């Protein structure tokens, strides 16, 4: 259910051509609350995300916006709109973001993450049109 709703949101963001002039990539980060969290910790985590992580991430060159979604199942999914793959690396080495984001590990465990491209962004990133490999008796070939 969470993944279905998440994919709906992701597809809506990517497929809305009127909302942006150029195509983008979306970095998806999935985290899960630690079982040791106390009820009073949930407010701390939300404040950390809203007042710390999101503003720090949005200051990084190449990051357009950040949205966070909580689930009833104990996960937080962050959608980070990026202009280039290097924005992820820039976030990882940014001192301010690193200092703030490290506080999340007191409350959460990262359970996944990936970068989602639309076809145009994929082509721009890799400099050529994406090709579909053909299957032969020896295996996949280009």
Secondary-structure map:
Blueprint: H1 2-15, E1 25-33, H2 39-58, E2 63-70, E3 75-82, H3 86-93, H4 95-101, E4 108-117, H5 119-126, E5 134-136, E6 139-141
Antiparallel strand pairs: 1-3, 1-4, 2-3, 5-6
Helix pairs in contact: 2-4
Give your account of this protein's structure:
With about 140 residues, the protein is of the alpha+beta class. The chain has one domain (about 20-130): Alpha-Beta Plaits (2-Layer Sandwich). About 40% of the residues lie in helices and about 30% in strands. The chain contains 5 helices and 6 strands, in the order αβαββααβαββ. A 4-stranded antiparallel beta sheet has the order 2-3-1-4, with helices on both faces. It is elongated. The N and C termini lie far apart (about 35 Å). The mean pLDDT is about 80.
Give a summary of the structure in a few sentences.
By secondary structure, the chain is of the alpha+beta class.
Spatial strand order of the main sheet: 2-3-1-4
Helix content: 40-55%
For the record, the CATH architecture stands as 2-Layer Sandwich
Shape: elongated
**From the helix content, strand content and strand pairing, which structural class follows?**
alpha+beta
Entry keywords:
142 residues; alpha+beta; Alpha-Beta Plaits; four-stranded antiparallel sheet; two-stranded antiparallel sheet; 5 helices; 6 strands; elongated
């Amino acid at each position: 259910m969470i993944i279905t709703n998440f994919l709906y949101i992701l597809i809506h963001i990517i497929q809305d051509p009127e909302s942006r002039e150029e195509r983008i990539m979306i970095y998806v980060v999935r985290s899960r609350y630690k079982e040791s969290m106390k009820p009073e910790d949930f407010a701390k985590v939300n404040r950390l995300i809203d007042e710390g992580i999101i503003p720090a991430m949005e200051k990084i060159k190449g990051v357009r916006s950040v949205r966070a979604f909580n689930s009833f199942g104990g996960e937080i999914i962050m959608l980070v709109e990026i202009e280039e793959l290097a924005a992820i690396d820039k976030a990882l080495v940014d001192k301010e973001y690193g200092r703030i984001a490290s506080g999340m590990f007191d409350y959460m465990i990262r359970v996944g993450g990936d970068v989602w491209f639309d076809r145009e962004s994929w082509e721009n990133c890799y400099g050529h049109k994406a090709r579909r490999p053909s299957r032969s008796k020896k295996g996949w070939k280009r």
